[in-house]
Design goal:
Strand order of the largest sheet: 2-3-4-1-5
Structural class: alpha/beta
Number of domains: 3
Shape: globular
CATH class of the largest domain: Alpha Beta
CATH architecture of the largest domain: 3-Layer(aba) Sandwich
Number of helices: 15
CATH topology of the largest domain: Rossmann fold
Helix content: 40-55%
Length: 364
């Protein structure tokens, strides 16, 4: 089976073990983190938009481009059979896929999300499937994988099953890839007959206030805050940022800022907006191999690029001296927000309770 997976994929940026159920994968992830010393764990809250919660929220936006996209989605959702969602990482492709599912005649049937490479390496039978099958990252398929998907798409179109919709996502335009000889042209044409292209956040900054307010409402509800608002001067900073990580980056920035804010009011000083964050090859390798949302970096792997062309390197000795204390203070802050509930604080931070005890220096 590993041989098939190697043929089907180029590289897996976020490894996903399809042989384990989600609960087992989460347990394995937490156990791995639990084995690390505090200085090797950079604590960040869990990502706001999770697979289990994503289908409960409406996509937010007011720009002309976003209104056009949502009008297209509303028109197509009741009649979908096959479609592609294209957009950069973090733009909300899966959120839109859930929206299409929720507004289709198949909303009561399952929504099945799979990595395209992994699914084609283990499953190729559409006959037993009902609902929405959402195959992620089809642009990473190599020739064998594209041929397999091409055959399945042809069968799906010819069979015309009323109980199955096939959605695929790509971070690159399939037509452009086909033009460069990197994707089967006929497969690109079939997949892109119905195509939803999500513009990056930097091209629709007028949507940032609506998205930010929606995120504040969700995060405030999660942390049981009576109110979560942006203070004076905060929105202009959000509007000036270029958001290379798109909506996912905005969600991370707002959630982290809210944990630092006093009384649920985010001030400009609470925002952690880097002009660019670049990881050395060693850090990138760790992220690829561990496949989790937390960044596990040694001080030697951290590089920050300023807004000017010159590269600034953080003093390694200073980071080594202060990182443990920074982690401890952040954990204490989240614990205070959780009213002293260590289990709740550990869940928010995305670590096990034993790791939290060790960071705080408390006996088990």
């Amino acid at each position: 089976m590993k041989g098939w997976a190697q043929l089907l994929s180029r590289s897996v940026d976020e490894p996903f073990d399809c042989t384990l159920p989600l609960d087992a994968q989460e347990e394995r992830r937490l156990n791995t983190i639990d084995d690390l010393p505090p200085s090797e764990v950079l604590l960040t809250p869990k990502l706001l938009v999770q697979e289990t919660a994503e289908n409960r929220y409406e996509p937010a936006g007011v720009s002309a481009a976003w209104r056009k996209l949502m009008a297209q989605a509303r028109l197509a959702a009741p009649h979908l059979r096959l479609a592609t969602i294209e957009g950069e990482a973090g733009t909300g492709k899966t959120l839109l896929a859930h929206y299409l599912h929720r507004n289709s005649p198949l909303e009561k049937l399952p929504f099945i999300r799979q990595d395209a490479r992994q699914w084609l390496a283990t499953e190729t039978d559409l006959n037993a499937l009902r609902g929405f099958l959402y195959l992620d990252r089809v642009e990473l398929l190599e020739g064998v994988g594209q041929n397999l998907l091409h055959g399945l798409v042809r069968v799906h179109q010819e069979r015309a099953s009323p109980d199955l919709v096939l959605l695929v996502s790509s971070q690159s335009s399939l037509h452009l890839l086909a033009g460069k000889g990197e994707f089967l042209p006929d497969l690109a044409f079939r997949l892109s007959a119905v195509r939803f292209a999500i513009p990056p956040l930097r091209l629709r900054k007028e949507d940032i206030p609506a998205i930010a307010q929606a995120l504040l409402d969700r995060i405030g509800h999660r942390y049981q805050l009576r109110s979560a608002v942006l203070g004076p001067g905060t929105m202009p900073m959000l509007l000036q940022h270029n958001w290379p990580g798109n909506v996912r980056e905005l969600a991370s920035v707002i959630e982290s800022a809210l944990l630092e804010a006093e009384n649920g009011i985010i001030q400009p000083g609470d925002l952690n907006l880097q002009q660019g964050l670049h990881l050395a090859p060693g850090a990138q390798g760790m992220l690829k191999n561990r496949g989790r949302s937390e960044l596990a970096l040694g001080a030697e792997d951290l590089r920050i690029v300023s807004s000017n062309p010159s590269v600034q390197i953080i003093d390694h000795e200073a980071v080594s001296l202060n990182l443990d204390e920074m982690i401890r203070r952040h954990a204490v802050h989240v614990l205070n927000l959780s009213h002293g509930n260590k289990l709740r604080a550990a869940q928010i931070l995305g670590i096990s309770r034993s790791t939290l005890y060790r960071i705080l220096g408390d006996p088990m």
